[in-house]
Amino acid sequence: MSETLTITTPDGAFAAYVARPQADKAPAIVVIQEIFGVNKVMRDICDGLASQGFVAICPDLFWRIEPGIDITDQSDAEWKRAFELFNAFDVDAGISDIAATITAARKLDGVDGKVGAVGYCLGGLLAFLTATRTDVDASVSYYGVGLEKRVGEAEKLNKPLLMHIAEKDQFVPPEAQQVILNALKDHPQIEIHTYAGRDHAFAREGGAHYDATDAAKANGRSLTFFRKVLGQGEQA
Protein backbone atom coordinates (compact mmCIF):
# COMPACT_ATOMS: atom_id res chain seq x y z
CA MET A 1 0.00 0.00 0.00
CA SER A 2 1.47 3.38 -1.00
CA GLU A 3 0.57 7.01 -0.43
CA THR A 4 2.03 10.50 -0.71
CA LEU A 5 3.12 12.35 2.41
CA THR A 6 3.60 16.13 2.49
CA ILE A 7 6.42 17.32 4.75
CA THR A 8 6.42 20.97 5.78
CA THR A 9 9.59 22.90 6.63
CA PRO A 10 10.33 26.59 7.27
CA ASP A 11 11.56 26.75 3.66
CA GLY A 12 8.45 25.19 2.14
CA ALA A 13 6.76 21.83 1.67
CA PHE A 14 7.81 18.77 -0.30
CA ALA A 15 6.35 15.37 -1.11
CA ALA A 16 7.48 11.91 -0.09
CA TYR A 17 6.49 8.50 -1.41
CA VAL A 18 5.36 6.18 1.39
CA ALA A 19 5.00 2.41 1.19
CA ARG A 20 3.38 0.61 4.10
CA PRO A 21 3.57 -2.95 5.40
CA GLN A 22 0.58 -4.97 6.53
CA ALA A 23 1.61 -4.61 10.19
CA ASP A 24 -0.25 -2.01 12.26
CA LYS A 25 2.99 -0.78 13.85
CA ALA A 26 6.47 -0.94 12.34
CA PRO A 27 9.81 0.87 12.21
CA ALA A 28 10.31 3.38 9.39
CA ILE A 29 13.16 3.62 6.90
CA VAL A 30 13.87 6.84 5.00
CA VAL A 31 15.02 5.91 1.48
CA ILE A 32 17.43 8.54 0.14
CA GLN A 33 17.37 8.96 -3.62
CA GLU A 34 20.09 8.75 -6.24
CA ILE A 35 20.56 11.58 -8.77
CA PHE A 36 17.46 10.52 -10.73
CA GLY A 37 14.83 11.71 -8.27
CA VAL A 38 12.06 9.65 -6.71
CA ASN A 39 11.83 7.32 -9.69
CA LYS A 40 10.63 3.75 -10.16
CA VAL A 41 13.89 2.34 -8.76
CA MET A 42 13.40 4.26 -5.50
CA ARG A 43 9.69 3.45 -5.31
CA ASP A 44 10.45 -0.24 -5.89
CA ILE A 45 13.01 -0.15 -3.06
CA CYS A 46 10.33 1.35 -0.80
CA ASP A 47 7.82 -1.29 -1.84
CA GLY A 48 10.39 -4.01 -1.17
CA LEU A 49 11.11 -2.68 2.32
CA ALA A 50 7.37 -2.52 3.02
CA SER A 51 7.08 -6.18 2.02
CA GLN A 52 9.75 -6.89 4.66
CA GLY A 53 7.72 -5.15 7.36
CA PHE A 54 8.96 -1.55 7.33
CA VAL A 55 7.25 1.77 6.62
CA ALA A 56 9.42 3.13 3.79
CA ILE A 57 9.51 6.86 3.01
CA CYS A 58 11.32 8.41 0.03
CA PRO A 59 11.39 12.24 0.17
CA ASP A 60 11.75 14.42 -2.93
CA LEU A 61 15.11 16.00 -2.12
CA PHE A 62 15.30 17.87 -5.43
CA TRP A 63 12.18 19.91 -4.64
CA ARG A 64 14.20 23.08 -4.08
CA ILE A 65 15.53 22.79 -7.65
CA GLU A 66 12.50 21.25 -9.35
CA PRO A 67 9.76 19.24 -7.61
CA GLY A 68 8.77 15.84 -8.91
CA ILE A 69 11.96 14.81 -10.75
CA ASP A 70 11.45 11.24 -12.01
CA ILE A 71 14.02 10.17 -14.60
CA THR A 72 16.02 7.03 -15.38
CA ASP A 73 19.60 6.05 -16.20
CA GLN A 74 18.61 4.82 -19.65
CA SER A 75 19.44 7.78 -21.93
CA ASP A 76 22.24 10.32 -22.39
CA ALA A 77 19.76 13.18 -21.99
CA GLU A 78 18.60 11.82 -18.62
CA TRP A 79 22.19 11.37 -17.43
CA LYS A 80 22.94 14.96 -18.45
CA ARG A 81 19.93 16.19 -16.50
CA ALA A 82 20.84 14.02 -13.51
CA PHE A 83 24.33 15.53 -13.30
CA GLU A 84 22.87 19.03 -13.62
CA LEU A 85 20.67 18.26 -10.62
CA PHE A 86 23.60 16.74 -8.73
CA ASN A 87 25.72 19.86 -9.31
CA ALA A 88 22.87 22.19 -8.28
CA PHE A 89 22.00 20.22 -5.15
CA ASP A 90 22.68 21.79 -1.75
CA VAL A 91 23.89 18.97 0.51
CA ASP A 92 23.30 20.87 3.76
CA ALA A 93 19.73 21.75 2.74
CA GLY A 94 19.23 18.12 1.76
CA ILE A 95 20.26 16.92 5.21
CA SER A 96 17.87 19.44 6.73
CA ASP A 97 15.08 17.96 4.59
CA ILE A 98 16.05 14.43 5.62
CA ALA A 99 15.96 15.50 9.29
CA ALA A 100 12.46 16.89 8.70
CA THR A 101 11.50 13.59 7.09
CA ILE A 102 12.79 11.64 10.09
CA THR A 103 10.78 13.88 12.43
CA ALA A 104 7.66 13.39 10.30
CA ALA A 105 8.26 9.65 10.18
CA ARG A 106 8.39 9.34 13.97
CA LYS A 107 4.98 11.03 14.18
CA LEU A 108 3.43 9.09 11.30
CA ASP A 109 0.51 6.83 12.12
CA GLY A 110 1.72 3.23 12.08
CA VAL A 111 5.36 4.02 12.89
CA ASP A 112 6.60 2.62 16.20
CA GLY A 113 9.11 5.43 16.79
CA LYS A 114 12.26 3.82 15.38
CA VAL A 115 13.60 5.32 12.12
CA GLY A 116 16.47 4.21 9.92
CA ALA A 117 17.83 5.58 6.65
CA VAL A 118 19.31 4.02 3.52
CA GLY A 119 20.82 5.91 0.60
CA TYR A 120 22.37 5.20 -2.78
CA CYS A 121 24.97 7.15 -4.82
CA LEU A 122 24.30 10.80 -3.83
CA GLY A 123 22.02 9.23 -1.24
CA GLY A 124 24.95 7.13 -0.01
CA LEU A 125 26.77 10.31 0.96
CA LEU A 126 23.58 11.73 2.46
CA ALA A 127 23.01 8.53 4.46
CA PHE A 128 26.47 8.94 6.01
CA LEU A 129 25.75 12.58 6.86
CA THR A 130 22.31 11.61 8.16
CA ALA A 131 24.09 9.25 10.56
CA THR A 132 26.43 12.00 11.76
CA ARG A 133 24.06 14.99 11.82
CA THR A 134 20.58 13.76 12.74
CA ASP A 135 18.91 11.64 15.41
CA VAL A 136 18.30 8.70 13.04
CA ASP A 137 18.57 5.31 14.77
CA ALA A 138 20.59 3.52 12.07
CA SER A 139 21.86 4.25 8.55
CA VAL A 140 23.03 2.29 5.50
CA SER A 141 25.19 3.86 2.79
CA TYR A 142 25.53 2.32 -0.68
CA TYR A 143 28.52 3.57 -2.73
CA GLY A 144 28.41 7.15 -1.49
CA VAL A 145 30.01 9.73 -3.78
CA GLY A 146 32.24 12.42 -2.25
CA LEU A 147 32.30 10.70 1.11
CA GLU A 148 36.10 10.84 1.34
CA LYS A 149 35.83 14.62 1.84
CA ARG A 150 33.51 14.18 4.83
CA VAL A 151 35.09 11.38 6.89
CA GLY A 152 35.97 13.80 9.70
CA GLU A 153 32.27 14.00 10.54
CA ALA A 154 32.42 10.42 11.83
CA GLU A 155 33.61 11.77 15.19
CA LYS A 156 29.99 12.87 15.76
CA LEU A 157 28.61 9.41 14.98
CA ASN A 158 27.02 7.56 17.89
CA LYS A 159 24.47 5.34 16.10
CA PRO A 160 25.15 2.28 13.91
CA LEU A 161 26.17 2.79 10.28
CA LEU A 162 26.55 0.08 7.61
CA MET A 163 28.52 0.91 4.44
CA HIS A 164 28.71 -0.85 1.06
CA ILE A 165 31.68 0.11 -1.16
CA ALA A 166 32.16 -1.00 -4.78
CA GLU A 167 35.89 -1.62 -5.27
CA LYS A 168 35.77 -0.63 -8.97
CA ASP A 169 33.52 2.39 -8.45
CA GLN A 170 34.20 4.82 -11.31
CA PHE A 171 33.01 7.73 -9.15
CA VAL A 172 35.00 6.76 -6.04
CA PRO A 173 38.57 6.02 -7.18
CA PRO A 174 40.94 3.76 -5.21
CA GLU A 175 42.67 6.65 -3.43
CA ALA A 176 39.29 7.98 -2.24
CA GLN A 177 38.29 4.52 -1.06
CA GLN A 178 41.55 4.27 0.87
CA VAL A 179 40.82 7.56 2.65
CA ILE A 180 37.37 6.26 3.61
CA LEU A 181 38.61 2.87 4.80
CA ASN A 182 41.56 4.27 6.75
CA ALA A 183 39.37 6.81 8.51
CA LEU A 184 36.34 4.66 9.26
CA LYS A 185 37.25 0.96 9.41
CA ASP A 186 38.02 0.99 13.13
CA HIS A 187 35.08 3.16 14.21
CA PRO A 188 33.04 1.20 16.78
CA GLN A 189 29.71 2.17 15.20
CA ILE A 190 30.66 1.47 11.55
CA GLU A 191 30.53 -1.80 9.63
CA ILE A 192 32.04 -1.71 6.12
CA HIS A 193 31.73 -4.24 3.31
CA THR A 194 33.62 -3.97 0.02
CA TYR A 195 32.62 -5.71 -3.21
CA ALA A 196 35.46 -6.87 -5.46
CA GLY A 197 35.02 -6.19 -9.16
CA ARG A 198 31.83 -4.20 -8.67
CA ASP A 199 31.25 -0.77 -10.19
CA HIS A 200 29.10 2.10 -8.98
CA ALA A 201 25.39 1.29 -8.52
CA PHE A 202 25.87 -2.48 -8.60
CA ALA A 203 22.64 -2.76 -6.57
CA ARG A 204 20.53 -0.65 -8.98
CA GLU A 205 18.27 -3.21 -10.60
CA GLY A 206 18.18 -2.66 -14.37
CA GLY A 207 21.31 -0.49 -14.32
CA ALA A 208 24.37 -1.06 -16.50
CA HIS A 209 26.48 -2.29 -13.55
CA TYR A 210 23.81 -4.28 -11.74
CA ASP A 211 25.11 -7.52 -10.26
CA ALA A 212 22.35 -9.73 -8.93
CA THR A 213 24.60 -11.81 -6.67
CA ASP A 214 26.33 -8.95 -4.89
CA ALA A 215 23.16 -6.84 -4.83
CA ALA A 216 21.43 -9.68 -3.01
CA LYS A 217 24.39 -10.01 -0.65
CA ALA A 218 24.43 -6.28 0.15
CA ASN A 219 20.65 -6.06 0.50
CA GLY A 220 20.63 -9.11 2.76
CA ARG A 221 23.23 -7.50 4.99
CA SER A 222 21.20 -4.29 5.09
CA LEU A 223 18.01 -6.12 6.02
CA THR A 224 19.76 -8.05 8.81
CA PHE A 225 21.27 -4.78 10.08
CA PHE A 226 17.94 -2.95 10.13
CA ARG A 227 16.15 -5.84 11.84
CA LYS A 228 18.85 -5.98 14.50
CA VAL A 229 18.93 -2.23 15.21
CA LEU A 230 15.34 -1.16 14.54
CA GLY A 231 13.59 -4.34 15.66
CA GLN A 232 10.43 -5.86 14.23
CA GLY A 233 10.58 -5.59 10.44
CA GLU A 234 9.49 -9.18 10.00
CA GLN A 235 8.19 -10.21 6.62
CA ALA A 236 4.62 -9.07 6.16
Give an account of the 3D structure.
By secondary structure, the chain is of the alpha/beta class. The chain has one domain: Rossmann fold. The chain has helices at residues 40-51, 76-88, 91-107, 122-133, 174-184, 212-230, and strands at 2-9, 12-19, 26-32, 55-59, 111-120, 138-142, 161-166, 190-195. The protein has an eight-stranded mixed beta sheet, with helices on both faces. Helix 3 crosses helix 4 (122-133). The termini are close together.
Short description:
This protein is an alpha/beta fold and 236 residues long. The chain has helices spanning 40-51, 76-88, 91-107, 122-133, 174-184, 212-230, and strands at 2-9, 12-19, 26-32, 55-59, 111-120, 138-142, 161-166, 190-195. It is 36% helix and 23% strand.
